[in-house]
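In response to the reviewer comment on reproducibility (Comment 2.3), we provide here a single inverse folding case reported in full, input and output, so that an independent group could reproduce the run without further information from us. The structure tokens appear first.
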């Protein structure tokens, strides 16, 4: 059983749905509890059960969900309960803790982020086994939550489904023609792609500045900023467009919004960029592009750097070094064609196998403890 706030979009949500599909494929019963969202239909279509509960609100009123959640855990007899976000984690922890120790499920959490250091975030370290999605996250947990951890966190990198992202992925018929009809400026150009939601620390400003320099030397390139802005941050997209206008490259950078067909944008691009200004726990765009073989350029910080170091070290650049960013990009554009390569630890298959091994280890431990208790009573 996996619990998270909602199933709309984002790395945690995609990871939950991907892993649920892998659980079903491995013959396990998969249940997801969330407040709902547009990915529920896919989840159910792929064999998992979804239970809707309002476990997403950061409010004291959410505590009313503790008792119903405890009742649900008791009725469903889950072997493993896996929490992936702080509000669901608190509600689950409070429900789970008052269940009889001998009959309650094993409690697992995945730390998907570098959470703020406080009691609210500490719940992600209180489970019986914490999974960290990168070495960066593991080190952060060990440094900041040593008293809450029951045992050392285990690293399980997020994985790409290699049935969806793979070298030589064919473009659907008319995909390129239709895309260029929507964005005519992309026609007959080499695309440089920066995927990610529009927010100040994702690196769009650095990307636009880079495009301004590259445009002077490379007439055939075009920048693509893929990702939508949050409803309360629509003004930032206009700021970025104004920056491109001020630099005289408004016709060399396209804002294409959120795209469900991102894998084809990776496939068609000459280079993919990850230019986050602060350490991120993981870099899904890095491994997705690597799975298709497209070279990636990214700053040497946080989780994305771990993925890049494994899959395409030629693209690593010191953070906030515009000269190094420019030179690395030029070298990749002008030099021999290179391909990124996804290493096995970043596949969904490996992620699922490793996570299930952790589950089985916890269940074996519980079974052994139960046996010892029975022998002691005898």
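Designed residues, in position order:
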């Amino acid at each position: 059983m996996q619990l998270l706030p909602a199933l709309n979009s984002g790395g945690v949500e995609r990871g939950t749905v991907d892993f649920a599909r892998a659980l079903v494929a491995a013959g396990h019963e998969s249940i997801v509890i969330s407040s709902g969202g547009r990915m529920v239909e896919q989840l159910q279509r792929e064999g998992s059960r979804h239970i809707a509960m309002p476990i997403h609100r950061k409010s004291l009123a959410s505590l009313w969900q503790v008792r119903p959640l405890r009742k649900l855990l008791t009725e469903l007899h889950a072997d493993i309960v896996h929490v992936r976000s702080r509000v669901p984690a608190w509600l689950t922890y409070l429900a789970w803790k008052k269940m009889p120790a001998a009959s309650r499920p094993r409690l697992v959490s995945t730390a998907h982020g570098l959470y703020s250091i406080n009691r609210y975030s500490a719940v992600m370290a209180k489970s019986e086994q914490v999974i960290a999605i990168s070495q960066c996250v593991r080190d952060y947990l060990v440094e900041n939550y040593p008293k809450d951890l029951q045992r050392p966190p285990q690293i399980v990198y997020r994985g790409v489904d290699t049935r969806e992202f793979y070298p030589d992925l064919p473009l659907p018929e008319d995909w390129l023609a239709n895309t260029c009809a929507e964005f005519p400026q992309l026609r007959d150009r080499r695309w440089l792609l920066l995927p990610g939601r529009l927010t100040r620390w994702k690196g769009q400003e650095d990307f636009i500045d880079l495009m301004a320099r590259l445009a002077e030397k490379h007439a055939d390139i075009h920048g693509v900023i893929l990702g939508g802005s949050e409803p309360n941050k629509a003004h930032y997209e206009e700021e970025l467009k104004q920056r491109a206008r001020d630099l005289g490259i408004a016709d060399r950078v396209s804002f294409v919004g959120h795209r469900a067909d991102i894998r084809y944008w990776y496939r068609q691009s000459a280079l993919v960029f990850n230019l986050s200004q602060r350490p991120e726990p993981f870099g899904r765009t890095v491994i997705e592009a690597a799975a298709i073989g497209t070279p990636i350029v990214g700053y040497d910080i946080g989780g994305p750097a771990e993925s890049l170091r494994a899959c395409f070290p030629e693209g690593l650049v010191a953070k906030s070094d515009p000269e190094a960013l420019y030179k690395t990009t030029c070298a990749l554009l002008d030099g021999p064609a290179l391909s990124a390569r996804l290493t096995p630890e970043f596949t969904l298959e490996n992620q699922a196998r490793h996570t299930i091994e952790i589950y089985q280890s916890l269940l074996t431990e519980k079974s052994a403890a139960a046996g010892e208790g029975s022998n002691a009573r005898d």
